[in-house]
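Let us begin with a simple case.
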Amino acid sequence: MSELPSFKWLIFGCGGVGGYFGARIAQVKGQRVSYIVRNKALAALKEHGVRITSICGDVQVPPSELGPILDSQALDKEEKFVADVIMLGCKAWEAKDCLQMCEPWCGPETLVLPLQNGVEGLSTIRDIVTSWGKGHALAGCCNIVSAIAEPGHIKHWAANPPYITFGEFLGAATPKTLQVKAILDAAPGMDGNLEEDALAKIWEKFTFICSTTSVQAITGPHATQDMIPAIPELLDTWRAAMHEIVALCHSYGIKYDLKQVDQRVEALRVAKGASTSCSRDLWSGKPSEVDDLLGSVVRMSKEPS
């Protein structure tokens, strides 16, 4: 196996997504991971680094093994460098503004990898990067059940192992995208799935997470994912939502084999105690991605495909 390239990673956010995957990537030799954060997370990362408590193994990455930690509220004063990869670990409704803040760290060959839920925002990410005249946007999403235990400390309790799904919007993977794949393959406690048809995989996750959120959000915290197939009424509701969104996928020319619905039922059965992040945010009264998920289903259903 050839030696892995040494990449500079800039990750926006140190929550359940950015915090976890950034820490795992930082465990790979030669990778320098920087975060854009603020307030308590900024102080925690500068003092203690990133700590992961995970069913895939615990780890703490000290500040000395990270790149510069950047203050999102004072980016004009922060160190500038050309990132090899900009990864967006923020929420879907924040992605546009967060990406714009990353522009000074984008170079001609920088890859931009979004990990948000939803499908509407992907074209926005691509259009913004194209407007810069530099960098290259990828399509991406991730699968993980995790949350902030405290600033700089991420708890991961389901999805084993968590993974990033990514690929080109069109055409074969570039050499640099293949290098990202090699680095993610070397990272412990996660997988990196480079897909020929990344958009189909992202829509498949979108279908699942929308349907699951619609059931969990109205049923309450006791309706963890493993409970849905155990209660016929919940499973019927979930299946109806899945088939409705699969029809939407097909109307947009996205491939979706209906056999995947049954495969997702089995995934629910083994997801003990799992819930979608959107459901948890709704239950706790926090801002959520409900408009980026269920709202987008309504909008796209009304638009000509």
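The second case is a distinct protein. As before, the sequence precedes its structure tokens.
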Amino acid sequence: MKKCETDKKFDEYWKEDSPKISSVEKEIAWGKFYHNNLEKPHNKTSNFIKYAIVITILVILGTGFYTINKSQQEIASLITIENPGNKLKFFFLPDSSEIRLQPTSKITYSKDYKNNREVTLQGNAFFKVEKDQNHPFKVINNKTITTVLGTSFTIAENETQTRVKLHEGKVKMTIRGRSETWILLPGEEFFLDSGNVKVQHFKNYIDFEKESIKTIINFLEKEYAFKISVPEAFLNKQITLRIKKEENIEIPLKIIAELYNLNYSIDRFNRKATLKQHSAIPTNIPIEK
């Protein structure tokens, strides 16, 4: 009933000459009037508001739960590898692609890596990627996306700069939020500095001119995360050698071994290599006549 009708009805009851009735009858009459004219509209509106508030709270809570649950599921589907130490960390991805992770750096990739060869990098790392034409390999960092099929390259970044050095193969570079693309060839470096891009050549090798074997071994251990054993008598011997950056560690070890008539062995699983002298031929073995 509308408010004006209620007021009119109330006035009619007020002005009406009524016979004298008991207080009990008055209470009953007033109760009927209140129930028929005032109580129902008020309760209907009140209940509607209450139900609306409850539904709104449930929707908000449900949305929040869905968001939190989705976020937890996304986190649970990722694998993170960090290097909190001060030495190079070496590991393989599920497709046997090699990563050398620099100190204070971090790599994240999906548990479904076989179908999604995409990793997120924070910091600096070297990549030697296995070829898979059906599943391009992508590295995403703070500013750039590096896309490859199979190659080796190095990425280094800080707050304002990103450097990508290509050692072999080809890579495609893009900047997040921009449409341009750049194709790098071996020996080229993509340099992003505060939004400005420069593609330039870099020195893809290091020359050792009459350096001690000890110096070269220290370099190889640091670059390849290997522990290399060499006979002490050879550590101070000098050698002139060019080492191509990020090439197979077997190449420089083989050169040193051939120059000084040494044997070498490589244990890739335990990241160890050994250079040692040839076993001496025993002289007390009788010679058959």
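The chain has three domains: 24-75, 78-201, 205-277. The CA atoms of residues 65 and 76 lie 16 Å apart.
Keep these points in mind for the review questions at the end of the chapter.
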